[in-house]
Structures are given as C-alpha cells and as structure tokens.
Amino acid sequence: MPRVNLRVPFQDKDEAKRLGARWDAAARVWFVPEELEPARFERWLPPDETPNVRADSYFICASTRPCWRCGTASPVHGFMLPPGHETFDCYDDAEDGVWEPSEEPTLLCYLDWLSPEIVARITTLTRHYGYAYSEDTGSFYWMNRCEYCDAPFGDHETYCEPGQGFLAFTMEDARRITLLHVQEPFAGRCGSYSIGVTLFEEMHVA
C-alpha cells in the first residue's frame, strides 16, 4: 500500500504529531505510519482525486488584482472552461450522479484537485499560483499569491468580487482579462463555479 502523505498546516503540526503522524524532513511532508489507520488523520488527508468538472479544452485566464497587504496590482491566474464542458451533479446520492453538459462558459474556483498535466502547465506560467492552506475556509486549494509580498489571495475576492480579478462588470474589466486556450483535456475538482461568464466575448483570447 502506498504511503499516505498528509496536508498539515503549520499551526496543526503539534496535534498531528500527537496523533502519531511522522515528519519526512527530506520531502518536507507529514505522513501516516504504516501501523496507524489513516482515518484518525481525516482532516489532513489528500483531496478526493475524482473530478467533478471536465472538458475537451480549457482556458488559463490571467488578470490583475490589488494586493490587500502591499497595495500593488499583482498578476492572478485561474481556469475557465468553454461551452460544451461538463459538471458532475450528484443530486441526493453520489452513486446516482450524472455528467451534465453546459452551453455556457464557466469560471472555476476553490479547486482542490487538478490533473498532473494541468499542474505542470500552470506552473510553467507562474510561480504564484499553488496549492496552499486557507485560514478563511480551513481547507487547502489552488490559490494565487501576491507576486510582490507573497500575501495569499482568497478565491472569493479574486473570482467573486467586482474589479478584484475575474468578475467583469464593465468592458474595461473584461478587456484586461487574457484567456490562453489550451487544446488539451481538462479534469479537476472544484468547490464552486459560475453559471456563464459575464462579458466573456470581450475577453482577449491569446
């Protein structure tokens, strides 16, 4: 059985150690010893790698938003899916879930899992979008950080607040968003997504 690595935020390290987790200094990660059941470390277990969004292609979107700490306008990145993508709807029972197609583009947020191919591509474009712990949500997800002071940017402000990143309410907002169309499959797991993208047609496709 492969080793189970844990996602332990710094403030939880003492509790994880008390429960029996061990620290791999070389890999800089906490893990579950073979003699212990992973269930006792439930809150720090790796994310579910079952996708709930998928598409034949996708956009890597780029914009800027003001940093809440240093005030500088910092680049931010994210993912948008074109019309024809699918979302997995569970309804009352996950076993009865179905893939539902959408004819509207969608902007993804609170992504807690991305396929390795997508991770490899986004990390070649920016060093400031990565998997990190959010104190606001008490969970890990892929988030932006300020390019200048490294402050974390929560997804709510970046994707859901007008003028902060990717929610465009004016032509000017839309035209500063660049979309890199990647002609490769997308698979990920997100906590939220938009129903359509306002002023999508006005965004610049690279």
Characterize this entry briefly.
With 206 residues, this protein is mainly β. It is built from four helices and 14 strands.
Please characterize this protein's 3D structure.
The chain has 206 residues and is mainly beta. The protein has two domains: 10-44, no CATH class; 53-205, no CATH class. Helix content is 14%, strand content 36%. It contains four helices and 14 strands. The chain has helices spanning 13-19, 116-125, 155-160, 171-175; strands spanning 22-24, 29-31, 53-55, 58-66, 73-81, 86-89, 98-101, 106-114, 129-134, 139-145, 152-153, 178-182, 186-193, 204-205. The strands form three sheets. It has a nine-stranded mixed sheet with strand order 7-6-3-13-8-5-4-12-14. Strands 9-10-11 form a three-stranded antiparallel sheet. The model has no long low-confidence stretch (mean pLDDT 92).
